[in-house]
Request: fold
Amino acid sequence: MNWQALFFEFFLYGILTYSFLVVLFYLFMGIFSTFEIRKYLRTNSFADWNVLAASEHLPGMSILAPAYNESANIIENVRSMLSVNYYKLEVIIINDGSKDDSLEKLIKEYDLYETTVFINERIRTKRVRSVYKSNNPIYSKLVVVDKVNGGKADALNVGVNLAQYGYVVSLDVDCILEQDALLKMIKPFLEETKVRVIASGGVIRIANNCKIENGRLIKVNLPKKLLERIQIVEYIRAFLLGRMAWSRLNGLLLISGAFGAFDKEIVIKCGGYNYKTVGEDIELIVRMRRYMEEHKLPYKVTFIPDPLCWTEVPSDYKVLGRQRNRWTRGTVETMRTHRAMFFNPRYGLLGMISYPYWFFFEFLAPIIEFIGFIFFFVLAWLGLVQWGYFLILLACILSFGFLYSAFAVLMEILTYNQYKGKNYITKLFIAAFLEPIVFHPFIVWSAIKGNLDYLRRKNTWGEMTRQGLNPVQPVVAE
Amino acid sequence: MKEFYLFPVIIYTLLILLFLVTVLIMYFTIHREESDLNKIAWRHSVGVVIVGVVFSEGVEEGCEAMTYEFERRLNKKGYKNYLIDELIKSKRAFSGSSANSLKLLYERLNLDIDSFAKLHHAKWHIRAKGIQELGIMEQTKYRKEIFWLANDKHELVRNEAQCAMVSFFGWSGLSFLNAIEHQMSQWHQVQLLDKLSDVKPDAFEDIREWMESTNESVIVFAVKLATLYKCHEVYQGVVKCLQSPNSQVKISALEYLRLMPQEDTSDHMIDNYYAGDTGYKLAVITALKDIGSEKEIPFLVKELDDQDNDIKVAVANSLSTLHPLGNGFFETYPFAKTKPWKEIFFQITNKKIA
Reply:
């Protein structure tokens, strides 16, 4: 056997083995998540949220919401945050050097005055220009910070420095929270008696085309565009199946930057959010876990499957591509920063399973998929493998993608069943069928571009144009 | 390539699985829709009975609203469970005679037998559900069975059993604290404290005993109870808790002492100050602002030099209240013009008076 043949065989079997491992991991995740969700649903049906909403005995929580050029919806969004059911709550809006009139609008609407606050800069940040509080006691929970632009991570660090309570919740300012979202988020932190819960993530659901009134989600609708529907399937798959499974294993590496709760003390000890990366959410969790492992402190990162937070997703390929490009760069940066943990037994499950999983099946997956497809296509074209072989292999991959998405739809029906409109499930099923054909290749391509941009040292966030959630304005009686 | 012959097998397997998932999706979609429709119909009939019972003079009058359809449906397990759930929700929402009428209705329909049967179920969550139902509906006749479950190996079962004991007997229901072997989570403590908020305590002697428990979570809970009921009798025991190595015990003791201080409270707090972490130190300084006197000023001035800026801010806040010069003290401080004291003092001096 000459070296070309050896290389060919090695590559061929390498890709087949990799595909087999991917499928195996997904199967495990499907099984683990099913058990974890079932356990969660059984355990959480007992709490009386109405009583707890007014409880003085629960610890305080600080919502940190960075805002950059959010003038269009900021008043409604802040109102939504202030209306969340939680007794000891503080809402910190960090105006990250917006160029629009966000701050002026906030000052006017919420009757803000400039106050002098000493900020204990335990995490270094860009300069804070001023801190505002409201003259109106109704808005006593609101704090608005105006600072020099430094990016999302820097803005969140200002919030951490300023937060008066021990638990901080990072929240994208355009997200809509369910009324009992914080009560459900604090629960895992207080339930554990043996280990310290350092962070807890929540499910992000898609609000495109949903009915929103006074900053509250009134009715769940399915988006009109196929691209948005496919993202619904993708989110259910990622959150209900993926993260729940990792939560069961206590191996979760990512809590979405859009909505997550953290133990402030550990965040500060770890140095806060890393402003040098565009994936500040995954990087923080990895660093917090690494800190706990290195200090041999028992800990846990939990995840809640309840639909607690609703957000708008990109409705066109251009914006979606930018988002996925950024996510890829964030993953690569985090993997690189924490490469010391790779198969390092000192970090336990984190080093031996979670990190390698992310490396092989999140970071490398699109690259291998892309190269594998090109490789087999060229081989088939050159006649080195039969077209039948190539097509059957492709069919296997597509069928598995469809099966996994369909399973996610089934899990949605069995658990939260949010999509009850006429033909909604049929439409989601069709979206699940089309996902591996029309959506997944684009995601792979965006990830490839993300990797290339990372190599070119591109470090921009990328403009995220949004359509807006079209809140239904309340009718004012004359 | 041998694998080529394997692929059709894989494809067929995937297709069979897909077919199965599709069938399950169809089945559960239809099932859920039917279930939703059923619930709409049930909601009406159950609502009529509950409203009848709540707003009439007695259960008998209220029960006149029961239709033949209602009684026929009671034979269905699903309907019965739905009815129990609705009664539980209503019982939580009402108090006084309305709540009592709902309890009587629950008993008249023998729903307690169904709830009790759940106690012997193999699945823990069903056992816990049964306990919760009996607890909320104050079915004290099952107290013995429920009491034994207060130390169950499954957390949710024992939590519900403990809540049920408090629902039955109020303060006396806390007797499970003498025997529990497992740690009580903070979440469960919050739930119990909320339940106890309108319960009158019987004997503070119990709190003293619980504060001696070998179970640290019981000590924390006992101190919280003493704080909730403003129980001065256990002061000495709480002071002892300041020496505990457990930070939760210390923090809950501080909260008690802040709200119910005696002459020597500040001294005890300061004596144990350096044994605590930053959180504890901050809590002590904040408490001194409320309960301290000029006697604590030398200690506070010394702590103004602490390396932690949060402690400096808290100390400056306390000094602005306790020092006879008030904010004027800041001008006398040697480092008042240097960082970070300058900014800290500026903040406190300029704090808007609400």
User: Anything to note?
Assistant: DSSP finds 20 helices and no strands in chain B.
